[in-house]
From TrEMBL:
It comes from Algoriphagus boseongensis. The keyword Transmembrane applies. Coiled coil: none annotated. The keyword Acetylation does not apply. Residues 4-169 form the Glycosyltransferase 2-like domain. This is GT2 family glycosyltransferase. The chain crosses the membrane at residues 267-285, 291-314. Keywords: Membrane, Transferase, Transmembrane, Transmembrane helix. GO terms for molecular function: transferase activity. Pfam families: Glycos_transf_2.
Length: 320
């Protein structure tokens, strides 16, 4: 057996159903599926029982430990040569595993990370959130559009490692605070070949509201600082850009009240950025509503991530 697909799930039976259906339709069939129910109050047992006759599927229930440790549980029981880790709210194109297998074999990969995208049937808000999380106009471009694929830091919604990597490097060391980024850095430092596989993309069907999207982005900023506790070099210049954007927005009314000439320049810069976001989203999705929503989600993503990073950095300085 080549692939073992590990899926931690928490209170998401219907989303898991969509993912399992997309796995059932894969063109590449040499794989097993391990679903790890991480202490859910709304479990996915019935969903897994239904798909047990359609897939080589194992279902496990454990007390809540966090997604990182739930993935470790699954990998420790996997039988395949290569472990694929997916979030339960993604859907796979039918050639996902085939494209991934081709990349692993042709590029001799020990580990990989894949990008996410929005499906045509997604809501306008889901498409706008996808834009904010993947766009050049935010920091989203680093998630799946790097020219140097070896610099990619894989994310837990779509990543994987060989059995050898798991056995020699170990699994996740944190339950849910940037654990995927920490693992990516540790794998690379151990000398293994991890790269972005652009063709191994997933449709990321986020169920966020704007408020929960902001909370998630805030936690992403905090997580980056948490990763720096394990790897001091984890924070690069690009990760500071959202904090700079936040401070830039906060300074606009201040300079406006004080009457500084820089206020007009700030408005020009902000207007150019907003126009770029709007036109890019409009060209991508062919929808005025999605383009407007993309402006909102992009601002939320940058401000929330930036404030989360600043908050956790100050907390780290106080407690260290």
């Amino acid at each position: 057996m080549f692939f073992s697909v590990i899926i931690p799930v928490f209170n998401r039976p219907e989303e898991l159903r969509e993912l399992l259906e997309s796995l059932r339709n894969q063109s590449f069939t040499d794989f097993e599926v391990l679903v790890v129910e991480d202490g859910s109050s709304i479990d996915s047992k019935e969903v897994c029982e239904y798909y047990a006759s359609k897939l080589s599927l194992s279902y496990f229930f454990q007390f809540n430990t966090g997604q990182g440790f739930a993935r470790n549980f699954g990998m420790s029981r996997a039988k395949g040569d290569f472990f694929v880790i997916l979030d339960s709210d993604v859907i796979l194109p039918k050639d996902y595993l085939q494209n991934l297998w081709n990349a692993i074999k042709s590029r001799s990969l020990d580990a990989f990370g894949g990008p996410d995208a929005a499906g045509e049937d997604f809501t306008n808000l889901q498409k706008a959130m996808d834009f904010a999380m993947t766009s050049f106009w935010t920091t989203g471009g680093i998630r799946g559009k790097l020219k140097d694929v070896s610099k990619y830091q894989a994310r837990g919604f779509n990543m994987g490692v060989s059995r050898k990597v798991f056995e020699e490097v170990g699994g996740f060391v944190d339950p849910n605070r940037g654990e995927d980024i920490e693992w990516s850095i540790r794998i690379k430092k151990a000398g293994y070949r991890m790269e972005l596989v652009q063709d191994a993309y997933v449709f990321h069907k986020r169920k966020n509201t704007l408020f929960s999207f902001a909370k998630q982005a805030f936690s992403f900023g905090r997580n980056r600082v948490n990763v720096s506790r394990f790897h001091p070099d984890a924070i690069k210049l690009v990760h500071l850009l959202p904090s700079g954007f936040l401070l830039f927005l906060l300074s606009i009314p201040v300079f406006g009240v004080l009457g500084f000439l820089i206020f007009k320049l700030q408005l020009v810069i902000l207007g150019a950025w907003m126009l770029g976001v709007f036109l890019n989203s409009l060209a991508k999705y062919q929808s005025l509503q999605v383009a407007v929503l993309s402006l909102i989600t992009s601002i939320i993503q940058l401000m929330a991530y930036g404030s989360g990073l600043i908050f956790e950095w100050i907390k780290k300085k106080i407690t260290s």
